[in-house]
């Protein structure tokens, strides 16, 4: 058991995954024929003539994304309807036969470079327009389109796939050759991370509601992320087929009761993907989610060992809706207010304790009760290790108040001690005369703990 836990603690990200974690918050862009038909999923039979954004401006997209504090864009280059936002040489169902006649993939990629953010794309494997879908020839067709996107639009930081699989126009379903798709990406864009339900680099969190698990692990069984690189031997209770039930919706992915049965572990962190509105494509009657909901999603994604891919759907003019622009500006202002100004602290590891249960003093320069967040980061380049922790405030008279209990830390854990929407800070009443220091105690870890950063806001 101990040897396996040490192996689990040493499962670590590669450089692509570390760069993705540092990106943190980025935008999904769903735009296509569905924007003009008021649908979420197209049929593949839509006329190219309906796609006519009169005021298309990808620089406006990028300005909106950057001003919100996001660091990248993932463009839906082709959705399930098969309509391509670039003039692909392999289909007529694209912008080249629309009134628009503009290469939106190129314009988006160029705008990202001008705006200083990263560019990535989503290419839907399901294609309801292609007559090849459901045949061996379709995988070659898909790889040809993928190669166009990988080789003609500069650096790509992210390639996003789902596993949607339905019937094509011939009534057939497709067996996707994902290993061959991944091989192309590694060949032409070796720095790009790949999203897929089952790895190899990033996995789906299991919902589109913006919520992470109670304990979100990046170290998960290879039975789930079977495209990932296995980094350990079998767990002490492993038997063939024992974890065949695993799916992304399972709530105990990566927890001890789960990994002991695994044949081997991989590093595959979760992405939180959701839309700023109820739908993924723009619908005139929809409104953006509340500021509180978006703030909570940020805390439970970027602040819970995940990254946040927030969808911003352009409207029929080809612009991000002004209602969404306004809400994003509000979110940026709230993030800057709540998490933009650090409180000076001195962090010192306390003597005593075990390597898997260290304690740290977080000392203020004076007694205070205005702290609202504690942000913790493990040095995940050495593995994700912390299973649980607690934070205690010590008042000037020496009395102690336990304020926060958490599970995993991982790349970043934002510990929220006060809700900006709830009125009075509960710390103000409980710590009437202020706290002179906080005690962070790791209560359980898989091996020696390596904290990278501790900040207070």
Would you summarize the structure shown here?
By secondary structure, the chain is an alpha/beta fold. The chain has helices at 2-9, 15-23, 33-37, 58-67, 104-115, 136-151, 178-188, 256-259, 291-299, 322-339, 426-430, and strands spanning 25-29, 72-78, 118-123, 158-160, 193-195, 203-204, 219-221, 265-267, 270-275, 307-311, 345-349, 359-368, 373-378, 386-395, 400-406, 413-416, 435-445, 451-456. It is globular and about 75 Å long.
What does this structure look like?
It is a single chain. The longest helix has 18 residues. The two termini are 39 Å apart. With 457 residues, the protein is of the alpha/beta class. It is built from 11 helices and 18 strands. Helix content is 23%, strand content 22%. Helix 4 runs parallel beside helix 5 and helix 6 runs parallel beside helix 7.
Strand order of the largest sheet: 5-4-3-2-1-10-9-6
The averaged pLDDT comes out at 95
Q: Span between N and C termini?
A: 39 Å
Largest sheet entry = 8 strands, parallel
What structural class do the secondary elements suggest?
Answer: alpha/beta
Shape summary: globular
Portion of residues within helices: 10-25%
- How many helical stretches? 11
Number of E-type strands? 18
Radius of gyration: 24 Å
Give the H and E element order. Answer: HHEHHEHEHEHEEEHEEHEHEEEEEEHEE
Low-pLDDT runs of 5+ residues are: none
Strand portion: 15-25%
